Amino acid sequence: MATPAVDRDALVELLDGNPSVIVTLIDSFLNDCSDYMNAIRNAVENEDAEALEREAHGLKGAAGSLRASPSSEAAQALEEMGHAEDFTGAEAALGTLEAEIDRLKDELRALKRACQEATGRVD
């Protein structure tokens, strides 16, 4: 069985089960995620090690704050490639990150809906 994209229990515990805080954190991540991913794709395409390290580090932290280990680990692999200025396998690592981010976004949207239903507020 695959590792869940996000450890819901850990995230809920971290935020004291406050549905509105969870929704705010999810919204923030979903808003920033596309920018991170576009910057990471461009860095891989242009073999810009500094940008890759910086943007992958930012995404790693954002995913980690959501207790999303698979996405955080995938971003870390790219961060390390940028740090080492070694783009060997970067395309494959980017593919892994994209797949994990897609899984994460699906789970976050489902968690957001559940939190909104719990508070009676659905966007």
List keywords for this structure.
mainly alpha; about 0% strand; Four Helix Bundle (Hemerythrin (Met), subunit A); single chain; about 120 residues
Structure description:
By secondary structure, the chain is an all-alpha fold. The protein has one domain: Up-down Bundle (Four Helix Bundle (Hemerythrin (Met), subunit A)). It is built from 5 helices and no strands. The termini are far apart. The mean pLDDT is 93.
Q: Helicity, in percent?
A: over 70%
Number of helices: 5
Instruction: List the domain count as a whole number.
Output: 1
Fourth-tier CATH superfamily name: HPT domain
Catalogue the unreliable spans. Answer: none
Helix-strand makeup class: mainly alpha
- In percent terms, what proportion of residues is strand? under 5%
Main β-sheet: number of strands, strand sense, barrel status?
A: none
Distance between the termini: 32 Å
> How many β-strand stretches?
0
Q: How confident overall, as mean pLDDT?
A: 93
CATH architecture assignment name: Up-down Bundle
The fold-level CATH name is Four Helix Bundle (Hemerythrin (Met), subunit A)
How is the secondary structure organized here?
Elements lengths: L7 H7 L4 H28 L2 H17 L3 H16 L5 H30 L4
Outline:
It contains five helices and no strands. The protein is an all-alpha fold and 123 residues long.
